[in-house]
Amino acid sequence: MTPKFDEKIEPIYQEVLARNPGETEFHQAVQEVLESLGPVLVKHPEFADHRIIERICEPERQIIFRVPWQDDKGDVHINRGFRVEFNSSLGPYKGGLRFHPSVYLGIIKFLGFEQIFKNALTGMPIGGGKGGSDFDPKGKSDTEIMRFCQSFMTELHRHLGEHTDVPAGDIGVGGREIGYLFGQYKRITNRWEAGVLTGKGLDWGGSLVRTEATGYGATFFVDEMLKVRKDSFEGKTCLVSGSGNVAIYTIEKINELGGKVVACSDSGGYIYHEKGLDLALIQQLKEIERRRIKDYAEYHKDAKYVAKGNIWQIPCQVAMPSATQNEINGKDAATLVKNGCIAVGEGANMPTTPEGVRVFLEAGIAYGPGKAANAGGVATSALEMQQNACRDSWTFEYTEKRLQQIMQSIHQLCYETAEEYGTPGNYVNGANIAGFVRVARAMVAFGLV
Ligand SMILES: NC(=O)C1=CN([C@@H]2O[C@H](COP(=O)(O)OP(=O)(O)OC[C@H]3O[C@@H](n4cnc5c(N)ncnc54)[C@H](O)[C@@H]3O)[C@@H](O)[C@H]2O)C=CC1
Ligand SMILES: O=C(O)CCC(=O)C(=O)O
């Protein structure tokens, strides 16, 4: 699909393509933001004078390193580790670590780039970064995971610090991995520095609600979009792709708000259960036993597992992609709209292709892009950092209320910014512009650094 840029922005995008060959996901993430920015340069010519867009597209620092580790048989393996410290204008680099075989520099840069604007939208003092490895955790024993995490942190620790760079989890990195990473950081540095990682266990500096935060936050965001349309989750049939951290707590919150989730998935296929998914079973299979979603059908004979099936063909009113990038293409988006979908909230990062985004916007449905809708995870990480800084821990109710208020204010900011820039109801423009302007103002204030 041909990108639609303002004439001042086209050459900047061409320069990004030339400087970052082969990094298609990064190109896509940059394209999505730059397409929104034409009117911003008209209102703020100083951003063009200071070449803010060009500077924002270039990471402040990119770290690539070797991660050697030994499996349980004693064989040696070598993976590649990454940390892209993209932008520290608003605070220390903040963003998760992804362990997945598809990881390469282009994926980490797309995620780090998105993170800059997402983190800005939260209004909290956090810059943007992301990291990870092409390590595949699937089928590895606990001790193999531990040895990998220890080796990864042995290199990464020198780049981290509570005021410098603060990783968390993402695909393939949850509470278990954060534990091994924190343990190794503590051992190497001889510092018990809680604020260096978020998503920690509750006994050692973690925050209540961080586990639930991305899914709950995305659901709060969709709830706000529905409220604008004088609607709610009550009685709505919903789809949630994935069955990991984000998907599980999205399903939980949708249930609480009166919706019914009939399908979820993993990379093998999807499960469809017309009377509504059994969340306790999914948690047992996924969070505890680390099994595949197809096993769900062993316990519910009225549920159907479709191997390699396309979850977006199931009719629904609300869709919440919560698995991975580019999981909804133009055709899937058209199918969703044709089947009566009125709202899409992205729990995952960039789950919709540019063609799909265009379909949603042209159909005029409520479409909440990831950098706004899934910001609740990183926002609650910032709340964890606040608690660590004052050696405090807050109750679940208080922390969840803070999360809900943050999601409401992100929604409001995106909604008002879209109106201010002449595209009412377009949360893509709202999120890109509002996030960009916050970072750009700080960059202008700092001079040429
Ligand atoms: N964990 C967090 O706090 C945040 C995560 N995200 C994003 O949410 C998404 C999911 O992340 P998590 O739930 O943390 O990871 P996770 O590792 O807990 O779960 C990922 C899930 O997606 C499934 N999956 C992967 N590829 C798939 C495919 N091609 N088709 C269907 N399912 C597939 C996996 O089987 C797994 O169930 C990612 O895009 C991540 O970047 C965004 C904001 C914060
Ligand atoms: O909590 C964090 O620091 C990062 C969350 C994350 O990786 C994301 O927002 O995509």
From TrEMBL:
Family matches, as CDD domains: NAD_bind_2_Glu_DH
Binding site for NAD(+): T214, N245
Residues annotated to bind substrate: K94, Q115, K118, G169, S381
Record GO cellular component, one term: cytosol
Gene3D superfamilies in the cross-refs: Glutamate Dehydrogenase, chain A, domain 3, Leucine Dehydrogenase, chain A, domain 1, NAD(P)-binding Rossmann-like Domain
Any one GO molecular function term: glutamate dehydrogenase (NADP+) activity
Residues carrying the site annotation Important for catalysis: D170
Family: Belongs to the Glu/Leu/Phe/Val dehydrogenases family.
Protein name: Glutamate dehydrogenase
Taxonomic path: Bacteria, Pseudomonadati, Thermodesulfobacteriota, Desulfuromonadia, Desulfuromonadales
